[in-house]
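Internal tracking record. Fields below are filled automatically when a chain is submitted to the structure queue. Please do not edit lines marked as system-generated. If the sequence contains nonstandard residues, flag them in the REMARKS field before resubmitting.
Queue: standard
Priority: normal
Entity type: single polypeptide chain
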Amino acid sequence: MNNREIAEYTLEKLTKLGADAASVGVAHGSTDELNVDGGEFSLMRTLFDTNVGMKVIKDGKKGNISINQTDKQSIDEACATVIASAEQSQPDEAHRIAPFAGKEKFTLGVLEPDIAALYDRINEFLRTTKQDYPKIMMEQFIAQYERENALYMNTNGTEFEQESGEYSISSMFSAHEGEKAGSFNGADALFTDLNTPLIDLAGHRRLFGESERSLDPVSVDGKFVGTLIATPPLMADFLYSICGNFCSDGVIIDKTSPWIDKLGKTVASSGLTISSRPYAHEIVCGERFAEGFKSEDMDIIKDGVLKSFVLSDYGARKTGFERAKNHGANFFVTPGSRSVEEMIAGVERGLIVNRFSGGEPSANGDFSGVAKNSFLVENGKIVGAVSETMINGNFAEMLGNVREISRETEGGGRRVLPWVAFGGITVSGK
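SYSTEM-GENERATED OUTPUT FOLLOWS
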């Protein structure tokens, strides 16, 4: 059966078994993958993936199941199981299947890959890295082309279909010179054509150069309160933590979010706007539908004011707040007007941080951990790389203490993020 036949058959079966409402998502995909380990090609393979996800509502109770088989016997067994699961769960009036939202098909990305050209680009990447950055050891490099056809249907008549294809790369590397070795780092990117050398994607040149410079670290003596310049990779990590701690279903339903009563109020510096924009032209194959709703771009924070929580349909119905217009993954922070160099020149003392290694932040947003792949700034100049340096602060306070936002951005096809300078961060050295 094709996707539509599977979806129609499944919905009919669930209805006959007693579901008051139901939805089904069917996806077929394939992945062509090329792997490099230790600087040498190690693997070439094609993978296939199939998924059928079902959700039912019966007497105000919900059941979910996902399977990877599409024959009728497997579907029949899964339908019986998900109905039984719903019958055994607790009723909750916030559960529902999304109302009718239309019928639409989306075609995104590149649907026919050029694997030979991808192979050539990988070879070029390895040669250029070795030539321009001789101290870099490429621990692993994975390049893929993924194609997927996905269909969502529900008993309220909604039909969303998406056919998409995209290239991706993911790297892990470190710098070495004699007995000296730097910390691991990595980068990843999505893209739809092979017109650009891979080394020019995902900030690889910047990260390679910084890794080589990190082989001779300087010491941070004692403790000081200064400026943290978060690079785009670190900003992505910070934003996921901030949304999880302050804006997501769990903390809003439990009313543990410090922002529970902050909608429409100032929660950040006036120059900060954080959005989720799956339709931005920089985003590769962005989300077009979720939970039976068509996705839209949305502001989370606009000019420092909290505009939206990142709530699912269930979370919205449970709390009375508005449902988020998308899943909140394609972050877009509005750039500033100054260059990164100008930002650095204005820092009296602080750190430029690429990675952060630490535990989950506390409920109020406190965080603490080790700054990785980071550089000390004193009197507007980069002094050198640092090692074993701790940073701690509070996300809510940090958002209210934005000093500068760069005009340059990075994002690798998943997001658009600038460098952001935050004041009031505690840095602890030896």
